[in-house]
Design brief:
The structure holds two protein chains of two kinds.
Chain A: H1 3-34, H2 41-57, H3 63-86, H4 94-116, E1 121-122, E2 132-135, E3 138-141, H5 142-164, H6 166-176, H7 178-183, H8 188-213, E4 216-217, H9 223-235, H10 241-261, H11 269-283
Antiparallel strand pairs in A: 1-4, 2-3
Helix pairs in contact in A: 1-5, 1-8, 1-9, 1-10, 2-3, 2-4, 2-8, 2-9, 3-8, 5-6, 5-8, 6-8, 9-10, 9-11, 10-11
Chain B: H1 3-27, H2 30-55, H3 63-78, H4 81-87, H5 95-99, H6 104-126, H7 131-151, H8 153-156, H9 171-190, H10 192-202, H11 204-209, H12 214-240, H13 250-263, H14 268-284, H15 286-289, E1 292-294, E2 297-299, H16 305-320, H17 333-344, H18 346-351
Antiparallel strand pairs in B: 1-2
Chain lengths: ~300, ~350
């Protein structure tokens, strides 16, 4: 394979990976705190581009305003889902919460069918995002730059919030021990709400960038990216934020490179991803960057 | 109540069930039979998932994968050879599959056996994982099965799926398999193997210390569970008469998991009840989205409203009935006798000192 093709594929992998990283954060933060696989996260991701679409189309908001509104609405939906469906089950068996998450996922998907209909909608990108830059033989869409730059900004912000602010300290303390944190006067419910808001807002950013890259909206669009971002979170070590980012990048890269190197096997792309997942789990069950916790007897 | 009496009651109940199935087969229309068949298949699926998750405590999300294996094996075996030539348009069917043909029961058994074999192969490495990690790995396995099915058109007809499968699954088969599944799994969990499985669920390390072979018991439970999932997949294919890889997405596993959790983990009675309730609720909610009138107000038809209502109901049940729909009760003749005695002669109990 020639050099420029490799570079081209690396660029594509980087941009896809940064989207997975944005979505994976939500999974990993929620898992870190509640030990819950939030199966509804993919649906949260799907809602954001729809909010943006309607903000532009019906309310004729300018681009920047609709994006802010869409991110805010998605964050509120994420918080509401936690408030309604997960908080009352805080002391229930974990499987109940998981089923509740599946219920929320079904609910949001079908609510989207009711509200937005099941017919796929074409997402009209501003001309800026359709521009293609030519670097020698490498052609790069401006969305690719946008996704890498925007995700870098948001992920840096997130790292700042989690590791340098009081709310972040509360989050990390809850993920270590929820009961002790409560005793230390950490407002557990509020912190969990904030966690959901941040995770959903990042998923919203990911969803909007996704729609700019693949401009078609349909109510089930969150399922497969959601599942893959979740895998990215697991591969990176679930509960670990830098792990989720790197897991996302790795996943995006390996997905693109697998197809680039084995074009005949492109139908098996997702199977390859799942096989990698199972291998990582078997060899390093806590993920590449996961904490290795010794089992206590 | 004596053991003999219990056996007698069970046989009587089975005869009554047989009569009901006979009446249903002869009197109900195709639509109603379809719901009953689907519910019975869900009983098999739910009870088998309950074995590995509810009784052994191993979080498996691979049921859709085993169903897919069973569905494809059964379809390829029961389809008449001349018909196979007609439907495999993209790529001709590969050699051994073109001539293979077997009666329904053999096809179902082979489906189950192949699923169980795959379960042993995948289970040996994967069942070392615990909790959510096991769930994720098995979910990944099920997705791999689906993707492979999508990519080998010379065996599965790829994304087009297999059409025109003979409609062999009637109530005799679906209910029969469900009863057989319950019989086998109930027998298994009341045996010493069952005790070992439950010991693993409660505490793996303690179970290992008292001499339970973890790998053997986990893999056995996983394989038996997969066997019945495979058989159910075969029944499913011969009920729908058409299958394609999309039918076996992870949503299918979620449906079965919902049935098991709603019925109460580790309760076979609950699973049976929830399986029927799940399918009937989905059907009874159908009129909601086809439009209706409330007095003078005309509600137009809104696609998707049925599932919105359904998932809202599911959330309510999960939030307010935390122990499952039946609260984890298990049916037994003894329990029924006790219940009837307490209901009919409530005061006799106190005079006898309450030893029931």
């Amino acid at each position: 394979m020639s050099l420029h093709l490799i570079l081209q594929n690396l660029a594509n992998g980087l941009s896809l990976g940064s989207l997975y990283a944005l979505i994976a954060i939500g999974y990993t933060m929620v898992y870190g705190i509640l030990r819950l696989i939030n199966f509804a996260h993919g649906e949260i991701f799907m809602l954001a581009p729809y909010f943006l679409y309607y903000g532009l189309l019906i309310f004729h908001l300018p681009w920047w305003a609709s994006i802010i509104v869409a991110i805010a609405l998605t964050a509120v939906t994420g918080m509401l889902s936690e408030r309604i469906a997960y908080r009352p089950l805080r002391n229930s068996p974990r499987i109940s919460v998981l089923i509740s998450a599946i219920g929320v996922s079904f609910f949001l998907q079908n609510l989207a069918i009711v509200l937005f209909t099941g017919i796929p909608k074409a997402f009209h990108r501003p001309t800026f995002f359709k521009t293609i830059y030519q670097f020698g033989e490498i052609r790069i869409q401006s969305t690719l730059f946008a996704s890498v730059i925007v995700s870098t900004i948001f992920l840096t912000l997130l790292i700042y919030v989690v590791y340098r602010t009081k709310t972040g300290l509360a989050m990390r303390s809850i993920s270590t021990d929820i009961e002790t944190s409560r005793l230390m006067a950490v407002d557990v419910d509020k912190t969990i709400s904030v966690t959901f808001a941040i995770g959903s807002a990042l998923a919203a950013v990911g969803g909007i960038l996704w729609a700019l890259r693949f401009p078609q909206l349909f109510p089930f669009m969150g399922m497969i990216p959601g599942l893959k971002a979740f895998i990215a979170a697991v591969v990176g070590g679930i509960g670990n934020i830098p792990g989720a980012m790197l897991g996302g990048l790795l996943l995006g890269m390996s997905e693109i490179l697998f197809v680039a190197f084995f074009p005949a096997l492109s139908g098996y792309r997702d199977a390859f991803i799942f096989a990698v997942l199972i291998l990582v789990l078997l060899l390093k069950p806590d993920g590449i960057f996961g904490k290795n916790i010794q089992e206590k007897v | 109540m004596k053991k003999n009496n219990e056996k007698l009651f069970t046989i009587l109940a089975l005869i009554v069930l047989g009569i009901l199935v006979y009446l249903a087969e002869n009197n109900l229309d195709a639509y109603k039979l379809r719901i009953l068949n689907l519910s019975a298949i869900y009983v098999t699926l739910g009870v088998s998932l309950n074995l590995i998750y509810g009784f052994t405590g191993q979080f498996s999300l691979g049921h859709a994968g085993f169903m897919a294996i069973g569905a494809y094996v059964t379809s390829l075996l029961v389809l008449p050879p001349y018909y196979k030539e007609m439907i495999f348009i993209l790529e001709p069917l590969a050699w051994p599959f073109t001539v293979m043909h077997a009666p329904f029961i053999i096809a179902l058994l082979l489906s189950g056996l192949l699923s169980a074999l795959v379960a042993i192969l995948i289970g040996l490495p994967v069942l070392r994982l615990k909790g959510d990690y096991l769930g994720i790995a098995t979910l990944g396995f099920a997705e791999i099965v689906r993707i492979v099915a999508n990519n080998i058109p010379q065996v599965t007809n790829g994304a087009l799926g297999i059409k025109g499968i003979p409609e062999l699954s009637n109530l005799w088969w679906t209910v029969g398999v469900a009863v057989f599944t319950i019989y086998i799994i109930k027998g298994l969990i009341s045996s010493s193997y069952g005790r070992a499985l439950m010991a693993i669920r409660e505490n793996e390390i303690a179970a290992e210390v008292i001499g339970v072979n973890l790998t053997y018991h986990k893999v056995m439970s996983f394989a038996i569970s997969a066997f019945f999932a495979g058989v159910a997949g075969g029944l499913f294919a011969c009920m729908l008469t058409t299958i394609d890889p999309r039918a076996f997405m992870f949503v299918m596993t979620f449906n079965i998991l919902i049935v098991v959790v709603l019925g109460g983990l580790g309760s076979i009675t609950g699973t049976v009840f929830a399986a029927f309730l799940f399918n009937y609720a989905l059907e009874y909610l159908r009129p909601i989205e086809s439009g209706f009138n409330i007095g003078p107000i005309v509600i137009p038809s809104i696609p998707g409203l049925r599932m919105v209502t359904f998932s809202a109901l599911l959330l309510i049940v999960i939030l307010y009935m935390k122990k499952g729909l039946l609260g984890g009760i298990e049916f037994s003749w003894k329990g029924l006798a006790k219940f009837i005695r307490n209901k009919i002669f409530p005061d006799k109990k106190s005079s006898e000192g309450g030893t029931v």
